[in-house]
Design brief:
The protein has about 450 residues and is of the alpha+beta class. It has a domain at about 110-385 and about 415-435: 3-Layer(aba) Sandwich (oxygen-dependent coproporphyrinogen oxidase). The chain has 14 helices and 13 strands. Helix 5 runs parallel beside helix 10 and helix 7 (about 280-295) packs antiparallel against helix 10. The radius of gyration is 21 Å and the shape is globular. The two termini are about 15 Å apart. GO terms for molecular function: coproporphyrinogen oxidase activity.
């Protein structure tokens, strides 16, 4: 059920122009030039096998990459509500952003520029740099996360039919930057954020120490390690309590040691957090992720499904944040290209795994009691993200990170009630049972 990236971009279109500003046109879904954007998708993932974790992952899922997981914190969202027909203005890059379709003076548009027309904004990295290294993984990953961002935003805007996305382009003074897209107070979504970051610089000694504690024997110079990191991160909170919340994040990390030796790995995952249990929804979501994983090895989904259940655990409540999905980190074998193809498949699975569930439930009737339960479950979401999520915690103590970015995953509204406990045999008690005892949804 995983769609090729190109197929997902055949509807709405963002025409990038005027130095990096993007515009979402409702109705005709056409750009200012009057023609549909070319789908930015890449070729489908090839068959891979033997995908697995590097040697540092043997300690289990609680030992994931702190700084890599913190990409969501570095990504950032500036919330703003827009009307259905809206222009998403972006802060211009101080380095002088150009239209994604622009090249050097007199230069004809090339394939890269045509692909960029489908993005929410021009790439963080200058097009001239991307052209110089077309086969480099940093280039391929940046284009993938830009494509994923555009396709998810497109799908969400179609479903919402009300608010548009604001687009916020930001810079990190230590190196790099990102693009944050936010839909807020829409017809369907209370808050939907899809953000990318492409950052680089030097790791602090504290970050390097964390990696050494995880088994990575990295050689620094004068206490510094060069790194590059990029990823796409999203949290989507619908208004209707019968429509589930989703989170996904896919990222790539490189570290260069003092002697020039490079280490790389991928991480990410996608998980579903419903307010009420709908078994058909749970089966659809997990089967879609399993199909994406199975294209690269039959052992991947069960391994990463368990990792997800273990990671999103609220220890002080004795329950999971949601009904899981997949989660992985430190993925560095069998080859960089094969792992990239796997990550691409997972990113492609987001829209087909989630959008049908929102369409199914966006118009469901609900009671005040059901809305209250949604607010209480969102309280649990907040508790996990602030107390346990290592990306959030790391980001709060990382120089140059944006507080809006770090807290982008939090809902607009949530609630805590003293000693609240659902009635036995109620629908509220049913979802709690699943959160306390994860199920196998695909066998």
């Amino acid at each position: 059920m995983a769609f090729p990236l190109g197929r997902l971009s055949a509807g709405p279109c963002w025409r990038a122009a005027r130095g990096g500003c993007a515009e979402l046109r409702a109705g005709s879904w056409r750009g200012r030039a009057g023609c549909l954007c070319r789908p930015p998708g890449t070729a489908g993932a090839g068959q891979s096998r033997g995908l697995g974790l590097g040697a540092t992952a043997g300690g289990g899922p609680r030992r994931g990459t702190g700084l890599a997981a913190a990409l969501a914190g570095l990504a950032g969202l500036a919330a703003a509500a827009f009307g259905h027909v809206a222009r998403a203005e972006m802060v211009p890059k101080s380095s002088g952003a150009r239209s994604p379709s622009a090249g050097s003076p007199g230069e004809e548009e090339d394939e890269l520029a045509r692909r960029c027309r489908g993005f929410m904004a021009s790439p963080v990295t200058d097009l001239r740099e991307l052209r110089r290294r077309p086969g480099d993984m940093k280039t391929k990953m940046e284009l993938l996360i830009l494509e994923t961002q555009a396709q998810v935003c497109q799908a969400l805007a179609q479903v919402d039919g009300g608010a548009g996305f604001s687009v916020d382009r930001w810079e990190r003074k230590e190196g790099g930057g990102g693009i944050s897209c936010v839909l807020q107070d829409g017809h369907v979504f209370e808050k939907a954020g899809v953000s990318i970051s492409v950052v680089h610089g030097h790791l602090s000694e504290e970050a390097a120490k964390q990696m050494r504690n995880r088994g990575k024997n990295l050689k620094s110079k004068d206490g510094k390690l060069s790194f590059s990191a990029m990823g796409v991160s999203s949290v989507i909170h619908p208004k209707n309590p019968h429509a589930p919340t989703i989170h996904f994040n896919y990222r790539y990390f490189e570290v260069e040691e003092a002697d020039g030796n490079k280490h790389w790995w991928f991480g990410g995952g996608s998980d579903l957090t419903p307010t009420y249990l709908n078994q058909e929804d749970a089966i659809h979501f997990h089967r879609t992720l399993k199909e994406a994983c199975d294209r690269h090895g039959p052992d991947l989904y069960p391994k990463f499904k368990k990792w997800c259940d273990d990671y999103f655990y609220i220890a002080h409540r004795g329950e999971r944040r949601g009904i899981g999905g997949i989660f992985f980190d430190d993925l560095d074998s069998p080859s960089k290209e094969e792992v990239f193809q796997f990550v691409q498949s997972c990113a492609q699975a987001v829209v087909p795994a989630y959008i049908p569930l929102v369409k199914k439930h966006r118009d469901d009737s609900f009671t005040p009691q059901e809305k209250l339960w949604q607010q209480l479950r969102r309280g649990r979401y907040v508790e996990f993200n602030l107390l346990y999520d290592r990306g959030t915690k790391f980001g709060l103590f990382t120089p140059g990170s944006r507080i809006e970015s770090i807290l982008m995953s939090l809902p607009l509204t949530a609630r805590w009630e003293y000693m609240h406990s659902p009635s036995a045999n109620s629908k509220e008690a049913e979802i709690l049972e699943v959160l306390r005892h994860p199920r196998d949804w695909v066998h």
